Amino acid sequence: MEEKKQKNGSPKAVANGEGSFYKSETLGRFIFQYTEPSGKRQTLRQKKNESERAFRKRVTAVKDKLDNGTYIAKSKDTFIEILKKYVEQKHKDGRISDRSYGRELFTVHQIENTCSSFINKPIQKITIEDIESCKENIRQYSNESITKIWSTIKKVFQIAYSRRKIPYNIMLDETLIKPISIKTNRKIEALTIEEENKLIDVLNNQEYNHKYRDIILLQLYTGMRIGEILALSKDCIDFKNNTLTVYRTLTQDDNYHIVMGDHTKTFKKASGIDKGKRTFPMNNNVKSLINKIISTKISNINGLLFWDNQNHTYITPSEINSYLKRINDKYNIANSSIHSHRLRHTFITRCVESGLNLKVIQTLVGHVDGSSITSDVYTSVSNDFMIQELSKINIDNTNYMC
Questions:
Q1: Rounded to the nearest 5°, which phi and psi values hold at 244?
Q2: In angstroms, rounded to a whole number, what is the distance separating the alpha carbons of residues 53 and 353?
């Protein structure tokens, strides 16, 4: 690199478009000044006992990184700062609802609880070992929570890498694997056919006049989410075409108060697409039940099929679950607890046992097309159904010894 002398004899910095290289007469060392992509001016100084050749090699390495776009500026941005800015920005941009924002803040809180050893470090200084050291803490949560925590951690490193804060995304290391919860997964089993029939019998006889009776039967007959049922209004019913439309659900605001949502649970705010919105034909059981409900005078301002007239408010999912627990305790309907989500499982299981097409089932219950959740999570097989299916093999079991 060229050096020129000033009038006083000291070296003069010569800019060549890529930085300025000169020897400081005061320090007696070589200096390289350059501008980062952000526009910030930086100075690289020759170290004590570092040869000129070695320093020039360091300068060349910086210049090469500036030229090929791999230069990483020093940053003090911590993991938790990047995470919180990301969540806040999504909320400000309107990409997530207040309720989703609350859920994401809860995940942030879980990360603060489990990853305190590295979240306040500059992200440039976080190592794979830092992540590994927090796995035991993360494992205390359920697998569902761990999935959210892990994907959020990965997102922060993805952001840091894309914004040139780190040269390499350590979360892409194949040896860094998501931990598994120490908790046993709770599997929600469908009601057996016998239990389902007993529940229906109780609702049609001893509990016939109870205000929650029709809600429970409607879930058994349609598999709708309980929030969707409690959000049904008169405009959802089309007797001319014999259809029922689901387009919204009861939900919670950021203060956990029950409110009427504008969409179903599967609505994606970023795309504006609600794949859970659906219209399906009413079978005879559903049509008969809807006729009974509609025949009752609906006087609430929202035109909802189900409304707490005494308190002038929504009927909540927790009320339905409390009622299901009471009647199960009273009438010994099932060996394990009954709740509204179990009724949804029961409907989907009966559909599978009846041989309904998977796509039809997904449309009926509002699952995203192609999702494995319908068959992998929501279905179990009753013992009666297994016996029925095994009978098709026509094997005489007496010819076999166990």
A1: -125, 130
A2: 77
Last residue of a domain, one of 172, 202, 226: 172
Q: Are residues 219 and 284 in the same domain?
A: yes
Boundaries of domain holding 38:
4-68
Q: Are residues 221 and 354 in the same domain?
A: yes
Q: Are residues 244 and 377 in the same domain?
A: yes
Same domain, yes or no: 88 and 26: no
Whether 183 maps to a domain, the answer reads no
Whether residue 103 sits in one domain with residue 199: no
Is residue 394 included in any domain, yes or no?
no
Q: How far apart are CA 146 and CA 111, in angstroms?
A: 10
**Tens digits of per-residue pLDDT, 243-301?**
999 999 998 877 778 889 888 888 777 777 888 899 999 999 999 999 999 888 787 88
Question: CA–CA separation, 224 vs 221, rounded Å?
Answer: 9
Q: Are 249 and 264 in contact (CB under 8 A)?
A: yes
Tell me the average pLDDT of the chain. Answer: 85
Q: At what angle do helices 358-365 and 340-353 cross, to 10 degrees?
A: 160
Is position 182 within any domain? no
